[in-house]
Amino acid sequence: METTEIIQVLSNLSSNERLQVAEAALLLIRQEQHLLTREQQQQQLGLAAMTAIADYAPGGELNVFTAIDGEEFYEYSDDELTDKDTHA
């Protein structure tokens, strides 16, 4: 069965069934990871790190909040932090 076929079938399953499939898939991945040599694990980590570089680059998804760097934000006084009436 092709990946596209599996994804298509998943859309016909209930949420509970999809979670069961996801759990089984993750279990298989974990089992495969345990069988990898140290060198293979290092290679996979290296590939994952290279893939993540784009996320950390300027304009990457993990830098979206840097757009508000330098903006002022409200700082609570010590009295406000200890006053129980201001917090639910």
Polypeptide structure, described:
- By secondary structure, this protein is mainly α.
- It has two domains: 1-35; 37-88, no CATH class.
- Helices cover 60% and strands 0% of the residues.
- It has helices spanning 3-10, 15-35, 38-56, 78-82.
- The termini are far apart.
- The mean pLDDT is 86.
Give short descriptive properties of this protein.
single chain; 88 residues; mainly alpha; 2 domains; 4 helices; extended
Q: How would you sum up the global shape?
A: extended
Low-confidence stretches: none
H/E series: HHHH
Percent helix: 55-70%
The N- and C-terminal alpha carbons lie at a distance of 53 Å
Number of helical stretches of at least 4 residues: 4
Integer count of domains: 2
Q: Main sheet?
A: none
Rounded to the nearest angstrom, the radius of gyration is 23 Å
Q: Give average pLDDT, whole number.
A: 86
How many beta-strand elements? Answer: 0
Protein structure class: mainly alpha
In short:
With 88 residues, the chain is mainly α.
Secondary-structure topology with pairs:
Layout: H1 3-10, H2 15-35, H3 38-56, H4 78-82
